[in-house]
Each structure stands twice: as C-alpha cells, then as structure tokens.
Amino acid sequence: MVSKRFKPSNADRLLDPKRREFISPEQVLTELDVKTTDYIADLGAGNGYFTLPLAEAAQKVYAVDIEKQMLDLLRKRVSETAGTNNIDYVLSSLEEINLPTSVADKAVAAFVVHEVPDLKKAFQEFKRIIKPGQKLLILEWEAIEMDMGPPIDERISSAKMKQIFEENGLKPEVQHFNEAVYAVTATV
After folding, report:
1. pTM across the whole model
2. What CATH superfamily is the domain 23-187?
C-alpha cells in the first residue's frame, strides 16, 4: 500500500490552483469546525496548503512533516506573506510524532496517509496527540484513475480507509467532496 514519499522538488504541485477544484482550505476548516482557541496538528503539512489557512483561524498549528525541505518551504511562504507566529514546525514521521501527548484539539492528515509505511503505528500516534473527545480528519484521493494525485496503486479507497479507522478503534464518518477526494473523520 505504501511507497514512495512525495518529492520536495515537486512542492509547487501542492499549491496548484487546480487543487481548489477538488478541495479548498475553507472546506477543511468547516469540516474540522476550527475555533480560534484550537491547537491543530497539520500532519504532513508540506509547504502549507492547509497550514496557512489553519493558522489564520486557530490559536496554534503544529506543522508536522518528515521532510525538512518541505518545512523550509513553509517557513519561506510564511515569511513572504503577512506572516504568522503561531506555527510550530515539527520535523517528524507520522509513526512517531514529535509532539507531546494530548497536545492537539484537532488533527488533519491531508493526502499523506497513503505514504505511511505502518498505519497502525500512525493511528496510535494520531490518537496519542489528539485530546480525548476531539477530532481527526484524514483526506485522501479516492482509488480512481486521474491526472492529479498519486498513481492508483498507491491510493487507499474510502472503503479501505473506513476499515482502517475501525481496525484502530475509531468510529469513522466518510464524506466525498467529489469523486476524487474523500474525508474520513472520527472522534478520538
């Protein structure tokens, strides 16, 4: 199921305006029900497609990424915009997240779970860093052929993702934003 890690040299693709046709940051803010007092973990933050809008809406964002180069690109974007000082940059895998227990009110993992080698460990970490009774949101590409996103053999279908949530003791809700992108949410 897993595979190849996204290459930082392709980071400009993550900010392609075409992505808005599939999922907008505003949809994620709504789905997470972001409050100004929230501490949010953006798991696999990349160069900040969701991080910056989350930082504008929340108290603090933990931008977690395994690639230092992606976090450097995010820092650069922050410094080139109006800037914000409520983002913590966390170099970390999702299987051993370098954050304290119960630090986040909510967490989002957007288009990255298909790259994680050990999903059981990752889900244990998601549940560890999110405060009890709070929300986890995973966005992924549906397992269909299309130009954007990873090759079909690297995708996880929404039905399989629902099963993964259940296997990890969570009660998932699946929502399709369109035929290409789905969200699975659960209270931790």
Report:
1. 0.88
2. Vaccinia Virus protein VP39 (3.40.50.150)
